[in-house]
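On clarity, I found the account of how folds are encoded harder to follow than it need be. For illustration, here is how one protein appears when written out as sequence plus structure tokens:

:::
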Amino acid sequence: MNEGGRPGTEKQDMGDVHEDPLAELALKLRTLRAQRGLQMGGLQQRTGLGRTTVSQALNGQVVPTEATLAALAKALGTDVEPLLALREAAARLPQVRESLPRHVSRKSVRPRAPLSFEERYLSYVAERHSQLTVVGLDLSRPERARWPLDAAYLSLELAERPDSWPADSEEADRPSVVVKRAEHALANCRRVLLRGLAGSGKTTLLQWLAVATARDELPEELADWRGQIPFVLPLRTLVRRGPLPEPHHFLTAVGAPLAASQPEGWADHVLARGGALVLVDGIDEVPQEHRSATRDWLERLLAAYRDARFVVTTRPSAVPEGWLASSRFTELSVRPMSAPDIGVFVGRWHSAARQNAATDAERSQLHDLEAALQVTVRAQRDLAQLSSTPLMCALICALHRDRRGHLPHSRMELYEAALSMLLVRRDLERSIDVPEGIQLTEHQSIQLLQRLAYWLIRNRQTETDLGTALALVSDALPAMRAVAEQGTADQVLAHLVGRSGLLRQPTMDTIDFVHRTFQDYLGAKAAIEAHDFPLLVNNAHDDQWEDVIRMAVAHARPAESADLLRRLISRGDADNEHRPRLHLLAAASLYYATEIEPDVRNLVEQHARALMPPRSQEEADTLVALGPGILDLLPGPHGLESDEVDPVVRTAAAIGSDQAYAFLQRFVQSLPNSSVSYELLDGWEHFDADQYAQDILLPFREHLPLAVQTQNQRNALRLLKPITDISFRGTFTEDEIIEHLSPEHTERLQIYSGQLLRDLKFVRRFTALKELALSECIQLSHIDDVTGMRLPNLRLINLPDNFSFNALASLPELTELALYTRLPWENLGELPAPSNLISLRLAGWINTRLAGISKWEQLQELVINAAPTPAEWREISALPNLTKLYISEYDLAQATPAPGVTYLQLSPIDADTQLEWVPEIFPNLEDVFINCRSSLPDITDVTPLKRIKKLQISLTFANQVVGLDQFPPGTVHLYPRPRTHDT
């Protein structure tokens, strides 16, 4: 074993290469890439090759083509001939590699010792999770409707709210979210809570992590994750089987056949040494009443195995913000697929379909359908929005193929068409009359599937054991004589699993739906047919029932939908705790109804307006999740308070339809140019970049910092010149960054994804530059290129470990410095920053003590995210000009009084805000800002602060505040601002 626990040491690989030209070729390519400092994404961009092609070449999995080697040689700046010679030698050898586990040494053609358990387990994980089921990929043969993960995986965008940045209103320039590709977003995390809507790709991302880890094929961005042993734990399976498992039962709980041969104490040893990657899928699939127990189970694992890596997934509404923050989880959210991502997905779907095609004519037709759909998706915004998750995009591709280019327009019509396509049309059109001896009509199939779906929903499960499924089918057969005459319950269930395209059998003894969306659709139909309105309403507060309620309104007849909506409103009126969720759910359901009585519509809209407009990002995101119908209720632009403008814009922009665009245009036209909504920036990605730039951004270009994520947005910068303030959040080259910028105008330049930058010489041309931010610049080793520049503000984020900061001493006008990256010194006294700093901001992971900070006597503002020692507190308190202090990890009991501090921001990461110490340590405070997002329990007592006279208090995300009555009106400010019925 090597240090990471991975079998097959590097030394052994090096010893084999002279006998294996393919391994030698792969080693040469990896060495060249390391010498050039290129990441996988950069190499893909330079070569124009796909990730799988590049990965296979660099890992010696297959003999690369001559064209592939030519592209790689050009990108790596080397002569292609030696590479081609190795390729020719490799091509002459027998190709036996594909049958071998990918992580095992390639010198396997000779007899070798039996594989260890760990090697066998990694091979099992790589094989078990290497395929995806794809909706409608091959209608004639469902068993072929599976997609190799290598070809299917699309690196989605993940968003993180940068809580480590100061959250005060003066930091208007900080991004509301930082968006990165998955591998970049995960790179600096050990514990992740991943949120995403149904079908957004959460589970696929976990599968990719498991397989890439097992094969030792993680990209360079995730180099720190290499050598881990993945454990895939789907909660949908675990909760059905009883108490959540301890490590030695992980394999048994998921039905892994290797469980019986697992060595004693193996899982405990892997976790304890920090060698485990624990992938927990589907918090939302745990009943609400059991989620606290699930969190307790997670926290026990975290306490016992602090060095293991954890990734946990959930739907957004299943758990509150900060649900695992006290355990130091980073919260990431899966973003909807962008237009380029949708284009890539459509291309891959059709490519996979062509591989399954039987004739050249069918393949040619698929080429034509792909070209047509690519145009249609770009041209129709509503269709683009429906296509924004991998599940819906696959469904649209399948329906587009099945209907020869004609598509339904609404989500419910898509589901209905998909059921018809999957259940009946494929067999009819393929002349498959009686497969497996069973012939079911569409209606008969739906009746049986509804029974299964409704049982799962009522029992809050997403899979059932085979015996229960058989019993449900068996109970239905006496009333379905035409079906019963064709076969037994076993045969009928086998037919549904084999032919419906909706059911699958993930293990020998379990049955589930290919996706939760189909379960909810069919279960809602069953609930309406059974007139189970009380059951629907009584469970409407549960996030597991949200989609069921909406689809139930869609399935219902007009009188039934009116009855159901009235019941939702009545329950909301009587239930203070769940009122907002119930009333907003009723409003969102209006969009799904075919016909609604005017009185009922008015009733629902009246109650929803009491919850409008949104007053926070979280409230906005909740509205977006409820669907486009919420636009009809969204107020504005006139009459909005200052804390409502951004959330309203965020809601409309994220919905992304033509109606939303028209709303934003009216909104922008009514705002004065000096009144800026920073959410307009994040709205850019949901619309055509050129049109958005001209209609929405142009009037605010002098006041709004521009943010660029995609190439289309970057190209649209030509319409917004001159540009003074810009952030590049996507990965761009130096030439792409500077193309539309003018040196004499650009004052603020922020590069959050600088992976392609090799030097900073281009920065010197920006003579008006006042602020520079650099992040993820993995090819940089220093900032010497900016030496001597008149640069007041510099921010350095997530830079390489060997980075040199010496040039900081050569920036004479530097007064504001932010360091959100590891530092190479034992203490801050060694930091070569100028003595005239007035602002210093430090992340918690700088790995450097605060000792020596007193040498910057002019400091007025200090941000620290690591707990100071008593000696460091004394240095901080002695800073003569310090007036603003931001701290997120602290023990105020050890602090020294700092009478000069007048503004304090506290962001506690555990249960105790320690407010009782504040009056003693900071007696002259004028403003205190308390971020309660990560504070547990949910009660914050501000009573101790009454000892400070004339203090202004701001609290964010405080679920319950004690002591408000101790302060005069207007003293305590809550964010989000409470509504009348909440106080």
Confidence is low (pLDDT under 50) at residues 1-18, 95-111, 164-175, 425-435. Residues 778 and 800 are 6 Å apart (CA to CA). The two ends are 60 Å apart (CA to CA). Residues 531-609 form one domain.
